[in-house]
Specification:
The protein is built from 7 helices and no strands. It is mainly alpha-helical and 143 residues long.
Length: 143
């Protein structure tokens, strides 16, 4: 953590960049891969390899992830969630369920940190609760 209390590890920054790319793609109604390519070409940005892993992983598993989120988010449809929360949840769910390199607790806490920085006051609690529920039932989701 930096002195300001904000995460500053390479992976935390990669998550933030992946969120930016996925959010931009959704808002512009383009594929996440084309949004990432455009950032590389237009802005001459170097994209961290973990950012690429996140964007590719979330993109590949969006259908499954959205099904889990829709099933277990009590009282909230995906469409009703703020876009940033939906994308944070997709990243957190992908890390939780499909990336064995990230401990479950880290996947949840990093998603909550993103929500604290970028979303509403209620979002961190909502994201923590939903990802916590998915973490509890992870073995049945992946069966």
């Amino acid at each position: 953590m930096s002195p300001s209390g904000k995460p500053n590890s390479a992976r935390s920054k990669a998550r933030r960049r992946a969120l930016d790319i996925l959010f931009e793609a959704e808002q512009r109604d383009v594929s996440a891969m084309s949004a990432m390519t455009a950032r590389r070409e237009i802005a001459d940005q170097i994209i961290n390899l973990y950012t690429v892993d996140l964007v590719e992983g979330v993109t590949a598993m969006t259908e499954n992830i959205d099904e889990f989120l829709a099933t277990y988010s009590q009282g909230w449809t995906l469409e009703r969630m703020p876009a940033v929360d939906r994308i944070i949840l997709r990243i957190g769910t992908w890390e939780l369920l499909y990336n064995d390199d990230v401990p479950d607790a880290v996947a949840v806490s990093e998603a909550v940190e993103l929500a604290k920085m970028l979303s509403t006051d209620e979002s961190p609690q909502f994201i923590n609760g939903l990802l916590g529920r998915l973490q509890q039932i992870k073995p049945t989701l992946l069966a």
